[in-house]
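Researcher: I'm preparing a figure for a lab meeting and need a structural model of a single chain. I don't have an experimental structure, so a prediction will have to do for now. The sequence is pasted below. Please return the structure as tokens so I can convert it later.
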Amino acid sequence: MTGRDNQRSFETWRLIIIRSDGREILVSTHEAKYTLPRIEIPAQRRIAANINRIVECQFGLRVVSLYGVAPCPPALAGDALYHAAVAIESAQTPRADTRWVYTRALTADSFSNHQEFAAIDALFAKLETGGANAATEPFLKPDWFTKARDWVERSVRPHSLQLSGEFRQLNASPTFSLIRFETNGAAVWFKAVGEPNVREWGVTLALSRTCPSFLAPVLATKRNWNAWVSLEAPGKSLVTNTGIHSWETAASSLANFQIQSMNDSEQLLQAGARDLRVQRLLSLVEPFFQFVADCAGRAPLQCSDNLTLLEVADLKEVIQAGLREIESLHLVDSAGHMDLNPSNIFCTSDRAIFLDWAEGFVGNSLFSFEYLLQHFRQTFGREPSLEERFRNAYLNRMRDLIPPKDLRRINSLLPLAALFGYAATVWSGSQNDSAWTTRWERYLLKLVRKMNAHSTQRETLGAQP
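Model: Understood. Here is the structure written out token by token.
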């Protein structure tokens, strides 16, 4: 099995596991020459969490994942996937035909596969040069976990909490980290963000000050890591709590949160929130659809259901007209969330907490509800009576702020405007991203085709201003 075989349910990873001082590395000894330990983890799942779990089970070592490693030149890796990790308890003795060896004694000939030594060499080259990037890659060095855990320990102490020693690492990279620490009371989360999600730092802290009832309480912050510690959100996520009452609670809480944030737009924009205000979206219509026209005609992106240039031009005019009509209603902007999937929402009996604010924005209040509605339909289907309950849970809070005739009109414009707002924001925020690929262009063209379907449906139904 190759590591990148998307047709199968598992990926094979070769692990570069070192001790915290970097002087020793774990190797497998069941062949004549050394090999790197290999494990299989479920595909499309959290890599760090699965590596840590399987390494402890299979090799008897507690580790913290570091990041993926590519041999130099990357072509040497072929289909192989390499990931670095560090053992956090040096006294543990590994099992499963593995042992520690001194890294300085290793050469390419020590390994059955020279590519594995190239991966090790690439890791240590990165560690040696990493000091220059300490400000932007705080989780590069093997000792970062000890420093982070010590900081979390100090941060929770004033709140009468003490770490128990148990933790679960979900994500890992030189710039990003997400770890759940158990305590003698409520669990706490350590989160740190790097590019392209640095905005989440500022937006989370701004909202925790202005709308604290709707976010997990922040206990401490560390600016040079773009990190914070927060209490675990109470209640259950909508992933596991799928009753209609929980979704109604989420909808009404979203409305209450947005009403509370309506005076904080400028502060949130300065903190890094994305700008989905109608004036900004109108300014994106021309360049976005020029991009669509350019990429839709390129041979690598062509497919049977691509829009014609005439359809693109017609869709552009429909979206411009819809946004101008929304602008004419002079609605108050508020905070919003473009990633309101059920895993980001935790509900108690009377309120919801909203997590993961990398996609936080300022714009039309009802855009967020439209994004949440799409997830509601994925859970419940198009069941009219349930959808009406869900809508009313949100709209009943908004009716005091938006006249009924305006509310009816904007509801007819909302699906297309909100979808364009999402697509145009993703596009505009990625213009300088070196990782931009044909895959992303295909994704945006898919969104454009979905916009066209909405537009065509409205015309078929005879939508009137």
